[in-house]
Design a protein that fits this description.
This protein is mainly beta. Helix content is 3%, strand content 37%.
Length: 374
């Protein structure tokens, strides 16, 4: 029985018995990624499969193409993370020499990426990789940067890490191994939603609301932006006319943003005042007409107060948008401001269409003693 460091607390939020699942893996040649999520200790067997030595863990083939191997894990419930253990038990001449861990809080389903039944001896197909790329998991928050691992011998197999992620909530993880090899278990410890305070559960439902002002709604009205559920098509979205002041030739700056002065905007009244924590901008169905970038501002207005008197704070810094997908925009893009918000202004540049803006926040009524993280 291994001795756990003092900082290891909570339940194993990614285990199979707690609902954790593998959504995708680049390769499962020698042993499948599902083994990472087992609660029981790894075991050694002398057996061989038709693909090679039987191993109780995730083991990929020796990389002979560009890139590295990685897997996406869906947690059973939204969770706050406190520590992890990467166990390389019995992987001695074949352990992954390096790893990193990324995470995200996704507010839409990410199922159906890959058929995970009987995947030993195979690798992700082109179709699997295309589906996985829609999650943009390579851009998820880095929880642990690339870090060296040691052999799976008894005295070196367990690699414990205390996490500094505060009270941020995660629903999905991406385990990267560099470039290939084997890992026996990934144990992620923390609190799941059953033990999260009620003020955190408010973040898990997007806010409703209505549009009160807008600059242009030629093809679709911004009232649709806060409608719950996925968009049905471009007809179920906000889309502006093409701006006539766009330059004869488009130029971009060193950061990749279009160099253009024009923009369109829509002001939305939220159903209630909240402290904003996460924002999701959904551009689904907008393939050739997605805006270049988006910025979101927020303010709080008392009943009867004129919008013209509002003082706006930036909630989401100007951020590039990707077409035809959910753009989950969280740390470090979100500016957590120390006052409640009941209006948001969505500013797109230079023009185009977006389907939904999902605002997730903590209810001010339940947060009289709580303020968002600094």
């Amino acid at each position: 029985m291994k001795t756990l460091p003092d900082f290891v607390e909570g339940v194993q939020v990614n285990s199979e018995e707690n609902g954790g699942t593998i959504l995708f893996a680049t390769d499962d040649f020698f042993a499948v990624a599902e083994n990472l999520l087992k609660s029981e200790e790894p075991v050694w067997r002398e057996d061989y499969t038709e693909f090679g030595k039987w191993m109780d863990g995730w083991e990929t083939r020796r990389k002979r193409i560009a890139g590295h191997d990685w897997a996406i894990i869906a947690l059973g419930k939204p969770s706050i993370l406190s520590s992890i253990c990467v166990d390389t038990a019995f992987f001695t001449g074949n352990y992954a020499p390096r790893f990193s861990l990324q995470g995200a809080c996704l507010f839409h389903t990410a199922k159906g990426i890959q058929n995970r039944r009987n995947k030993m001896g195979s690798a992700a197909t082109v179709e699997d990789l295309e589906k996985a790329s829609e999650l943009q998991s390579e851009n998820w928050e880095t929880i642990i940067p690339m870090t060296s691992l040691k052999s799976g011998n008894l005295d070196t197999r367990n690699h414990f890490f205390e996490l500094d992620t505060g009270d941020r909530v995660y629903t999905h993880l991406r385990l990267n191994i560099f470039p290939d090899g084997g890992v026996a278990r990934l144990r992620v410890y923390g609190e799941n939603s059953k033990s999260l305070p009620n003020n955190r559960l408010h973040m898990m439902q997007p806010l409703r609301g209505k549009c009160v002002e807008f600059s242009n709604a030629h093809f679709g009205h911004p009232d649709t932006l806060l409608v719950p559920g996925p968009p049905k098509g471009m007809h179920d979205a906000w889309e502006t006319a093409r701006r006539l002041d766009r330059p004869p030739e488009i130029q971009v700056d060193d950061s990749g943003f279009m160099q253009i002065n024009g923009e369109e905007w829509a002001t939305l009244l939220l159903e209630k005042a909240v402290y904003v924590h996460y924002i999701e901008v959904d551009t689904r169905f907008f393939k050739g007409n997605c805006p270049d970038n988006v910025k979101i501002e927020g303010t709080y207005l008392e009943p009867g107060q004129d919008l013209k008197s509002a003082s706006w704070d930036i909630i989401l810094n100007r951020t590039k948008l990707m077409p035809n997908q959910s753009n989950g925009l969280k740390h470090p893009f979100i500016e957590l401001i120390n006052r409640p918000i009941n209006h948001v202004k969505v500013i797109i540049a230079p023009d185009g269409g977006i389907a939904r803006v999902r605002i997730y926040g903590s209810d001010c009524d339940s947060l009289k003693q709580h303020k968002p993280d600094d």
